[in-house]
Amino acid sequence: MVIKKVTVAGSGVLGSQIAFQSAFKGFDVTVYDINQEAIDKAKARIKNLRPAYHRDIAASDEAFDAGLNHLTYTDDLAQATKDADLIIEAVPERPDIKHDFYQKISTLAPSKTIFASNSSTLVPSMFAADTGRPKQFLNMHFSNQVWLNNTAEIMGSPETDPAVYNEIVQYARDIGMVPIQLKKEQPGYILNSLLVPFLDAAEKLWINGVADPHTIDRTWIIATGAPFGPFGILDAVGIRTAYNITAAELPNKPELQPILDKLKELLDQGKLGQESGEGFYQYPNPEFKQPDFLKG
Length: 296
Ligand code: NAD
Fold this sequence. Notes:
Layout: E1 5-9, H1 13-24, E2 28-32, H2 36-47, H3 50-57, H4 61-69, E3 71-74, H5 77-81, E4 86-89, H6 95-108, E5 114-117, H7 128-131, E6 137-142, E7 151-156, H8 162-174, E8 178-181, H9 191-207, H10 213-224, H11 230-237, H12 239-249, H13 257-268
Parallel strand pairs: 1-2, 1-4, 2-3, 4-5, 5-6, 7-8
Antiparallel strand pairs: 6-7
Helix pairs in contact: 1-2, 1-4, 9-11, 11-12, 12-13
The structure holds nicotinamide-adenine-dinucleotide.
Keywords: Fatty acid metabolism, Lipid metabolism, NAD, Oxidoreductase
InterPro entries: 3-OHacyl-CoA_DH, 3-OHacyl-CoA_DH_NAD-bd, 3HC_DH_C, 6-PGluconate_DH-like_C_sf, 6PGD_dom2, Mito_3-hydroxyacyl-CoA_DH, NAD(P)-bd_dom_sf
Region (Disordered): 274-296
């Protein structure tokens, strides 16, 4: 099957980006959300992407407008699913909501439709039975700012049909992503399987009093040539998200409690990272961008 009509379900932070990027690359995209209020928010979010598309990928106004013209919006799930070749699910990261969503669309969507989840932490075998079509179900995980940070991590369950997997790899390429092909299920995919332990290790060095955040980052930047250290990355991810990820790990890793307490202190002081202008660094000109920082 050639994918032509795409529905993105859940039009929050990531869903709105995935929908617009697909439309920008010429696909007809239906944006579904639960009510008119959510849809109005999605329209505003998508409209607000224009400066970023200009700045980051030199998109012209004409190209951006052409993308907008490929989008339609609905809060009617039957309408949203009835003719879709592909449904990309970006509803909240809550298993109850996702189970319910897949059970609903399992009967509404035609048998041809492929379902792909953008879940960050939940593997596809958790929902395969709900979909009524486990062979046509897999995860396709985008990174925030999809037009710029353009990985699509593609991960099937043991039941996913390899032909469907390959169609999604092609779709990822067609919308300007670099498809990252996982051979088996892995919570956290590749990126977060690397990143989360790296950030945990940096936070432990800090909490245990081995070194302060700037020294830890300086070490990483000088020794590896990377543009950021772990605390610069935490500021970019956002301290709220870092807090939520650490809180989710806590039941299995109680030793992270002091880190959680420190992140909470930052949140209480309104230091949310780049988005609030201060986290471990001050923005827009963080110390790690200044030449003296690396001299120590
Ligand atoms: P969000 O809270 O910004 O958006 C969720 C949207 O889903 C909202 O618009 C909400 O109205 C809608 N929604 C709620 N219930 C729904 C339902 N039953 N059916 C359809 N829509 C419903 O969330 P988000 O950050 O965009 O995350 C969505 C998914 O994308 C999650 O699975 C998350 O793990 C994943 N993800 C998020 C990021 C990120 O950086 N935010 C990155 C990669 C993947």
